[in-house]
Structure formats: C-alpha cells, structure tokens
Design goal:
By secondary structure, the chain is α/β, with parallel strands linked by helices. It is built from ten helices and ten strands. It has helices spanning 46-53, 76-81, 99-109, 121-125, 128-137, 153-165, 183-196, 209-215, 233-237, 240-245, and strands at 6-17, 20-31, 35-39, 61-66, 69-70, 84-87, 171-175, 201-205, 218-223, 226-231. The strands form two sheets. The protein has a six-stranded mixed sheet with strand order 6-7-8-3-9-10, with helices on both faces. A hairpin with a 2-residue loop joins strand 9 and strand 10 (226-231). The chain is globular and about 50 Å long. The model has no long low-confidence stretch (mean pLDDT 89).
Length: 252
C-alpha cells in the first residue's frame, strides 16, 4: 500500500521568548489527507506551534515546508494563499451579517475582487451557489439568512469552518474546535469534522481526548515545547510518558 506523501514538515522548529523555549526543536510530519492532532498539557507549546505553522509568529530557528514550499517566516496571508486555512479559539464573526453573507464574502476574498465593503447583487450572485454548497456541508443551510450574532456557540464554530473552507484549502488547521461546547455540540462538531476531512488534511489542537480518539489518524503529544510521543491514538494514550505528563488525568 502506497504511503501518503508528507504535506507539512517541520525540522527543528523553535520559538524562543526572552530565553523561554515555547517550542524547542520540533520535528513534525503531517501526511496528506489525514487528521493529525496536537495534544498536551497546558503550556505545552501547542498554540505557539500553530502560530508558527500559519505565519502569525516567526520562528527563532528551524524550517517549515508546506506542499513542497519553504514557508519559514512567511506572513499569514502568503501562507494562506498556498492553501492553509485556520480557525481560531475565539470566534471572529460579524454579528449583523447573515450566515450566507459571511461565506459569500469569504468566497469573494479568494478572487481578484478581494475584500470590499460594498457589494452588488450582481457580483454576489456569482458566489451564491457555492455558498449554498458550503453551508449545506457544515449543516447551516437552514440558517443561511440568520444574523451570525444570533447563532448558538456551536453553530458559530460551524460557520467559521464554512468560511475557512471557502478558500478551498489543502490543509485546515483547527484550534480547539470543541472548546466551550456542551456534549451535543461536541458530538455535532466531531461528526462535522469527520465529514469535511474528505480530500483534505486537517491539523487540530484539541483537549477533548474522546474527540481526538474519534478523528485522529496520528497524534503528536507536546510537553514543555518538545515532542513527547507520536503515533496512533491507541498507542500514544498507553505511553507511560504521556500518562505521567497528564499527571493522572483521563486521557483515555
């Protein structure tokens, strides 16, 4: 069986803040078409690593290669143009704009029209069909005309996914996609990620280990900015070093 190619590779990637090594010589390989989870105790360096991968932080050392391109130190907009989309822990939607308008604007941003604060019906009709497809994909078709500010929290995260998918990314980075959710929303979001992963690579930071176990093909465990363990979920969760790192927390 042919092994999937590596779409993302880091080599000794590091980030230092005034002598503190938040990320220290991390080697990471993400296979194309897989879900790869980054987990670890608070302060392990997960969010810093995410920010390095997406260009929001410049590394102190090391290299990042995405889809054959050296993206080390590139700004976020250039990384995004190469096919990387990211959702954030904190929702960043326009409360008064409708669900459909968010997706149409995201689609518009991916064309030569760019971001504009005026829109004609003629221009936006170009994106109507694709916006409808994306909203259907994330389960928001019936809420297309609702203001984003009226959505429940879990549905706002689904809209953020639709906005991220509008750029047709090769790789989708999800930062705590189920954070702050009740059980029903966690289950709905887990099912959603399971659907949208088709023909995409997903890298996610996630604390909920049942979500990780349900979705991840590979898991990298970070501790104090370094890779502690890596492998399939069942293998990683049984690693004595991982159990010790979580200080007895339920990682099953």
């Amino acid at each position: 069986m042919t092994q999937p190619r590596a779409i993302l590779v880091t080599h000794r990637l590091s980030k230092e803040f005034q002598g503190f090594h938040a990320v220290n010589a991390v080697d990471l390989t993400v296979a194309e078409g897989t879900v790869h989870a980054l987990v670890g105790p608070n302060g392990a360096g997960k969010t810093t690593l995410f920010n390095l991968l997406t260009g929001f932080l410049k590394p102190s050392g090391g290299r990042i290669t995405f889809d054959g391109h050296d993206v080390t130190g590139l700004p976020p907009e250039r990384v995004a143009r190469l096919g990387v989309a990211r959702s954030f822990q904190v929702t960043s939607l326009f409360p008064r704009s409708t669900v459909r308008e968010h997706v149409e604007l995201a689609l518009q941003a991916g064309t030569g029209l760019g971001h504009r604060f005026w829109r004609s019906d003629r221009v936006m009709r170009r994106f109507s069909a694709r916006a409808g497809e994306l909203l259907d994909e994330v389960g928001l078709a019936d809420l297309a005309h609702s203001p984003a500010g009226t959505l429940p929290y879990g549905r706002k995260r689904a809209l953020e996914l639709a906005v991220a998918l509008a750029s047709e990314p090769k790789m989708l980075l999800l930062d705590e996609p189920t954070a702050g959710m009740g059980l029903e929303d966690v289950d709905r979001t887990t099912e959603l990620i399971g659907r949208i992963r088709a023909e995409r690579t997903v890298v996610m930071v996630e604390h909920n280990m049942s979500v990780v176990g349900s979705l991840a093909d590979a898991v990298t465990v970070l501790q104090r900015g370094e890779v502690l363990a890596e492998g399939p979920y069942a293998e990683v969760k049984a690693d004595p070093q991982v159990v010790e790192a979580y200080l007895g927390a339920d990682v099953a």
